[in-house]
Amino acid sequence: MGSRLRRSLRLLAWSAAMGCLGLGASSGSAAVEVAPDPGWRWPLAPPVEVAAAFLAPATSYSAGHRGIDLVAASGTPVLAPTDGIVSFVGTVVDRPLVTVDHGDGVLVSLEPVLATVAEGEPVARGQPLGSVAAGGHCGEGCLHLGVRVYGEYVSPLAFITGLPRAVLLPLGR
């Protein structure tokens, strides 16, 4: 199993343990910091402000916020968070969207984005993908970033900033 796949699976497990998949954290656990993946970056130039956090749905078909929203004005350049291949450029419902396949089952979707890349094109971390378009589910002024690992939505923060992981403590603490 490749190191990237092991990291993806570890992050999925951490997301579940910390409630990022809607499963809730275990009682009797404490958080320690996990380093971010050095191969990932924010899809916007700094400073980056998170407008809405990840909120995992209880089931695949339940309501939730399957990503994070970043404050960004229309026309702001959108950058590839990590290396990959553009797997989709198009409109979903009424929003322009770009999806990048980073391998090992990891897909990143960004919207609304007016793409300057094409499907099948390889992209490098930090390479421009396009610019923030008007509209989107949060109205004016945001970029939605979603990450799926083998089809399951996970918090993008697991890759960009690192997530705290659960540490079991002895009973009675």
Summary of the model, kept short:
With 173 residues, the chain is mostly beta strands.
Structural features:
Cell_wall_metabolism_enzyme, eight-stranded antiparallel sheet, Glucose Permease (Domain IIA), 11% helix, hydrolase, 2 helices, M23ase_b-sheet_dom, Dup_hybrid_motif, three-stranded antiparallel sheet, mainly beta, 173 residues
3D architecture notes:
With 173 residues, the protein is mostly beta strands. The protein has a single domain, classed as Glucose Permease (Domain IIA) (Distorted Sandwich), CATH 2.70.70.10. The chain has 2 helices and 13 strands. The longest helix is centred in the first third of the chain and has 15 residues. It is globular and about 55 Å long. The termini are far apart. About 16% of the residues have low confidence.
Backbone CA Rg: 16 Å
Mean pLDDT: 78
Number of helical elements: 2
Q: Major beta sheet, specifics?
A: 8 strands, antiparallel
How large a portion of the residues is in β-strands, by DSSP E?
35-45%
What structural class results from the helix and strand content? mainly beta
CATH topology value: Glucose Permease (Domain IIA)
- CATH 2nd-level architecture: Distorted Sandwich
The topology string of helices and strands comes to HEEEEEEEEEEEEHE
Task: Count the beta strands.
Answer: 13
Q: Based on CA inertia axes, which overall geometry fits?
A: globular
Please, what is the CATH homologous superfamily? Glucose Permease (Domain IIA)
CATH class: Mainly Beta
Q: How much helix, percentage-wise, in residues?
A: 10-25%
Organism: Leifsonia stereocauli
Enzyme class: hydrolase
Protein name: M23 family metallopeptidase
Keywords: Hydrolase, Signal
